[in-house]
Amino acid sequence: RACTILLGYPVSEMAGQNLRQFVHPEDIPVCEAWLQKMLETGQQQEDLECRIRHSDGAWSWYGSSGVPAKDETGVVIAVYGIAKDITQRKITENAMRRSVEIQAILREIAEAAVMAPTMNELYATVYRLVSRVLPSGLFHINLLDEVAGEIVVPFRVDDVTVIPARRPLDKGMTEYFLRLGHAAHITPAEMDKLTAAGEYTLGEVQKINIRHYLGAPLTDAHGKPFGVISFLSMKDEESFYPEDVEAISIIAAQVSMAIERKHLEEELQYKAITDGLTGLFNRRHFLMRAEEEVLRIQRYGGICAMLMMDIDHFKKVNDKFGHAVGDIVLQRVAVLCREATRTTDLLGRVGGEEFAFLLLESGRAEAMQVAERLRLSMQNVQITVKEGIQIPIRVSIGVAEHHVSKETLSDLMNRADKALYRAKSEGRNRVAEME
Q1: Catalytic residue flag (residue 353)
Q2: Rounded to an integer, what distance in angstroms lies between the CA atom of residue 59 and that of residue 57?
Q3: What is the pLDDT of residues 110-120, one digit of tens each?
C-alpha cells in the first residue's frame, strides 16, 4: 500500500506484477543481483539504488534495504523492503560528477590543441572526449566559409545522413545556430515552428531526418560565430536534456579556442615553409625536403631529376614596369609551374626569379618532357600590364638526372645550374641538360 501511494499506481496495477515493469531497464541487472544474493545468503542486504517509474511515467531514484523472511526450514519465501526517495541526492551527485568530468574534458581539449599533429586529429579527439558526457551518436563539426558562401563539414561521425563536404549557405540548422548565437536543444515541435517561420528548410541534397538537434556555435575571440558543433538524433523520443545544453555550451567555448589555436599554428607553419609571394616552398624548406628525398634514394634506391628554371630578362620587367608588376609575373609563373608538375614533385622559389624542381621517380627523358612542357606553357602566356601593353614570359631551364652513386643534393643542383647557364648562354627560352 505504501508503494502505491509513493508511485501513484492503484493496488490493482501493482499487486502480482513483475518487478521489471517498474524498474528502469538499465537497473534491472543490479536489482536481480541484489535479490539473488539475499536469497542465497538469507542475510539482510543494504544499499540498492535503482530508478523506479511513477504512474505518470517519470523516473525517480530510490535507495532500498531488504530483509529476507524465511519459512520453518530456513528457506527465503519473501523479502521486506524499505525504500527512500534519493532522487535529489542522485541529481546532486551526478551534477558534481558531470562537472568534474567536464573540467577534465576542457583540460584535455586544451592539451589536444597543442599535441594533435593535424586538425583532423584534433576533431577526432574532441569527439572522443565530448562523448564521455554527451550522447555519442551522430556528431558533426560544421564551419562557415564566408568567402565562398558555404558550409564546410571537416569532420563528422555519421553513417546515416547524406551531407556533402561543402554546400552553399541555405536555411539549414547550422545556419540557424550561427544566427542564434548560443547552445540549444531543438525538438521536433520547435523544428516545425522554425520551418513555418521560414527560418529552417531541410535541403533536398542533405536527405536527413533530424528529430532532435543539440548544438552550440563555435565563436572566435570577438564572439563572432565561425562554426557549429552538434549532436543529432533520428529518434522521436527525448534524446537530450537541459544539462546537455549547458555541457555543450561550455565545451563549445573550449573547442572554439582549440580550433583557432590549431588554425594559427598551421598558418604559422605554412608561412615558415612557403614563399609568401608565390606559395611555393621557400629556399630553406625546399632544400631540406629535397635533401631528405636524395638521401632516401641513396639508401633505398630510386630515381629523381632536378630542374633549375630562370625567368628570362626579369630584371628588365622590374626596371621598366616596377616591382608590383614583377610580383604579378612571379605569381603567374608559380601557377603555371604547379599546373605542369605533379603533386608529388617538390617545387621551390630558391632565388629572386629562380625556381627549382625535384621530380621524384623521374629519369632524364621524363624530366626533359616536363621541362619542355613548362617552357611552352610560359611561352603561351602574356601578362597585360595596361591597355595595349603585354609582357611575354620566357624561361630557361636546366635539367640534370640524379646519379645514384652517392651524388649529393648540392652536386645535383650544381649540375642542373650549369645546364641552366648553358641554356641562357645559347640564347635563352630553351631547355638544356647535363649528362
Answers
A1: yes
A2: 7
A3: 999 999 999 99
